[in-house]
């Protein structure tokens, strides 16, 4: 598993597609109905992990359990198809601390999810201004 993160609109998806030779058809865009089972053999990139974390929180689901399920699913898929899956998340830890308690809780949950994903990843990249820097 490869983890790519950075601020909003910093070029994370473009970086991942170019760096890891990923076609548009191989990118799974996370929506409100995202489920880990949607990560199939043709998927090489999952974009929108932070939005998924937000949706999980809104639904009352356990973010920690869902992240663990995601990690296990990707490891199982890697064993079947012998290729890496790239996960992309927004870093929302920078800037002003939100006034709204729910948004602060989301910011913390997203940060903790990113920590877990980075720990499980073989490689980690931070993207800023379209430039990816490998940090692990």
Keywords for this entry:
136 residues; six-stranded mixed beta sheet; alpha/beta; single chain; 6 strands
Describe the structure.
It contains 4 helices and 6 strands. The chain has helices spanning 12-19, 49-59, 63-81, 101-120, and strands at residues 2-6, 27-29, 45-47, 86-90, 123-128, 131-134. It has a 6-stranded mixed β-sheet with strand order 2-3-4-1-5-6, sandwiched between helices. Helix 2 crosses helix 4 and helix 3 (63-81) runs parallel beside helix 4 (101-120). It starts with a strand and ends with a strand.
The poorly predicted ranges are: none
CA-CA gap between termini? 12 Å
Radius of gyration: 14 Å
Q: Strand-and-helix sequence, N→C? A: EHEEHHEHEE
Strand order of the largest sheet: 2-3-4-1-5-6
Average pLDDT for all residues: 92
Strand proportion: 15-25%
Count of separate DSSP helical elements: 4
> Could you say which structural class the secondary elements and strand pairing correspond to?
alpha/beta
Could you give a short account of the major beta sheet? 6 strands, mixed
Oligomer: single chain
Helix content: 40-55%
Question: What would you call the shape?
Answer: globular
Q: How many strand segments?
A: 6
How would the blueprint of this fold be written?
Elements: E1 2-6, H1 12-19, E2 27-29, E3 45-47, H2 49-59, H3 63-81, E4 86-90, H4 101-120, E5 123-128, E6 131-134
Parallel strand pairs: 1-4, 1-5, 2-3, 3-4
Antiparallel strand pairs: 5-6
């Amino acid at each position: 598993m490869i983890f790519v993160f950075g601020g909003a609109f910093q070029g994370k998806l473009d970086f991942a597609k170019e760096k890891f030779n990923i076609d548009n058809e191989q990118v799974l865009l996370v929506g409100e109905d995202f489920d880990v089972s949607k990560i199939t053999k043709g998927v090489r990139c999952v974009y929108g992990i932070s939005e998924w974390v937000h949706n999980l929180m809104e639904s009352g689901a356990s973010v920690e359990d869902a992240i663990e399920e995601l990690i296990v699913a990707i490891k199982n898929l890697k064993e079947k198809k012998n290729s890496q899956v790239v996960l992309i998340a927004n870093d929302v830890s920078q800037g002003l601390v939100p006034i709204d308690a729910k948004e602060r809780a989301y910011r913390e949950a997203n940060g903790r999810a990113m920590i877990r994903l980075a720990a499980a990843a073989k490689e980690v990249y931070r993207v800023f201004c379209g430039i990816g820097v490998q940090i692990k």
